[in-house]
């Protein structure tokens, strides 16, 4: 099992003040636990008052900056720890299991999620010194050390929540700087790979787009390979390197995630939800659902709808 991220180094004094201000601003701008969109486009605020069980979900391209507490993300056998000293970047849509580790009512877990704008990344790359693309096609998720300059840009973006009349003009500037800080940081090359049109990350992303569009249909590896402009064997290898799963396993997780959403949000019965996402066998659906979420569909959804949900 590979583990990334660390919390053994104390934050510089200036960063402690930045984190304290961020924590105060988040707490004042959200009604309670959960994920909340802000008035700033592409910026969401997250709070949790207690640790959580491992919860599978689909993470879309984003930068997650923890302000208080800590969390871990599991992708296959890889474990990514991130806290107030480390940020998490997800460069393509991935089924990831997340678990909040440190949170209490008096000191809740607080996090910012900033959507990654690939068009902005491409624009910045045109202005940065050219680097030879590694085209290694590694994991599409990574943890980097939070720098004072990155945290400062994040703080300026969050302050705009309290000045909505300025957000339309200043938010794009802060967002641009945040992307720049990540691109020029210690692991910026990993984000650059996402925008290398001929690189493996971009090719795998094309296959993922097709799976997302047609997750409920039977798909053959040859169809995905054609969309990615790769051979079937090469796609299989690169896909697993990026996502820690095969295309079929990826599709299965999307199906189960969507079925869960249909039951939890739309109130659809398990049998109807399983059929809608492409399952022909209710027993197979129940078996695979339990394997991913830890309980049969009906029981898991009822637990999520309980008082704690």
Automatic annotation (TrEMBL):
<dbReference type="Pfam" id="PF06719">
    <property type="entry name" value="AraC_N"/>
</dbReference>
<keyword id="KW-0804">Transcription</keyword>
<keyword id="KW-0805">Transcription regulation</keyword>
<dbReference type="GO" id="GO:0043565">
    <property type="term" value="F:sequence-specific DNA binding"/>
</dbReference>
<dbReference type="InterPro" id="IPR009594">
    <property type="entry name" value="Tscrpt_reg_HTH_AraC_N"/>
</dbReference>
<feature type="domain" description="HTH araC/xylS-type">
    <location>
        <begin position="205"/>
        <end position="303"/>
    </location>
</feature>
<dbReference type="InterPro" id="IPR009057">
    <property type="entry name" value="Homeodomain-like_sf"/>
</dbReference>
<dbReference type="GO" id="GO:0003700">
    <property type="term" value="F:DNA-binding transcription factor activity"/>
</dbReference>
<dbReference type="InterPro" id="IPR018060">
    <property type="entry name" value="HTH_AraC"/>
</dbReference>
<protein>
    <submittedName>
        <fullName>AraC family transcriptional regulator</fullName>
    </submittedName>
</protein>
<dbReference type="Pfam" id="PF12833">
    <property type="entry name" value="HTH_18"/>
</dbReference>
